[in-house]
Amino acid sequence: MSLNGYLHEIVGKVEKIISSNEAEVSFKWNNTQKIGTLAKDKLQIGCRPVNAKFISDCVHVGSKIKFVCTSPGAATPGGTPLCILRAWRMEEGDIGYPTFGFPNIVRPGLTNAYVTVNEISKKLAILIYKNEEGKEESVLMLASKLYIGKKRVNGSLLQVMTESDYFFCDAVPVIPSTNDQHCSWFAVCVWRGKKPAYYDEKKKAVTFSEITQELAHYPYNLFLFAEGLIMCLLNHENGLLLGEVAPKVFQTVLFSSSICYMGDTNFANTDLRDIFKERDRVRFIAVRAPGNRMVAQWVATYVAPLDPADNADFLVHGMKVQ
User: Fold this and answer.
1) How do 32-39 and 43-45 pair as beta strands?
2) What is the per-residue pLDDT across 11-29, written as a single tens digit (0 to 9) for each?
3) CA quadruple 78, 80, 86, 91: dihedral positive or negative?
4) CA–CA separation, 285 vs 216, rounded Å?
5) Beta carbons within 8 Å of 86's beta carbon, 6+ residues apart
6) What are the start-end ranges of the E strands in 234-308?
7) Which carries the bigger pLDDT value, residue 197 or residue 74?
């Protein structure tokens, strides 16, 4: 659902290569065939920006992609191509490619998503986002994240919101069991009217904990949902896990205690060595590590243990990690 919000997780197919930097993508929306324009700098493979001279080095006619794009509305009459804002390739072997019996998925953060109010209290609200498959997903919003007319709202949400009100929001994915409301998303900004400039591009994170929080709350990231096992605990607040990012493909994921949960209990102020031991199995959400700043390939934004009964040998699709 869009109502002039962005469309998320649309599946499309490359119809033709327009130029060295652009391709035309076709997809169905509301039972109508639509066309979008994909620029090379908007495409990612394996959750990384592509590093190729030509877009034809990355996709070909028939390539399957998923993407976020502008919404078909009054400003985009019938044949006008829509602008693809973020895209990731979905060919066999790519991270996030659907494989039978393999749980990993890649999802974009929500940006300019249309949401409605479902529940309200003084300090928080639960919003409903209807995805492109028509499934409703819940979004947890704190009062501090609400703007009306580009101004942050102070005071009780009960004074400015009613059930079924509509807003737009940017949100990042979370593990539902880590919050009392069992929401799948956490809103980083909710607004009506003009979108506020809530994200400070000039602010630079310094510590790993700050970098983790910055990445976890940046909705323009692609987020990988996967499972893995603890490799080592570096100190009381940082650790390294081995994640199966694709079938039989394992990569390193750096994590901090600030994003570790058991149920809705956060371990930000707990020694990781009192929670995990090597070879413990976990589920996690992660984003690609920025540049060459990290010792790992990914940075976790959420980590939670799997059932303790599964903390034996890590056996996935016939591959055992010793």
Assistant:
1) unpaired
2) 999 999 999 999 999 999 8
3) positive
4) 9
5) 42, 44, 67, 68, 108, 220, 222
6) 238-246, 249-256, 261-262, 265-266, 281-288, 298-305
7) 197
Reduced to 3 states, what is the DSSP secondary structure of residue 215? Answer: helix
pTM score = 0.90
Which residue type occupies 29?
Answer: W
Q: State whether the Cα torsion 294-272-47-208 is positive or negative.
A: negative
Please, where are the H alpha helices in the chain? 208-216
- Check if the beta carbon of residue 278 is closer than 8 Å to that of residue 240: no
pLDDT 10s digits, 234-246: 999 999 999 999 9
Structure confidence at residue 103 (pLDDT): 74
**Rg of the Cα trace of the chain?**
20
Whole-angstrom CA distances from 252 to 127, 286, 289 are 34, 11, 10
Token pair 């607004």 in the structure block, residue? 191
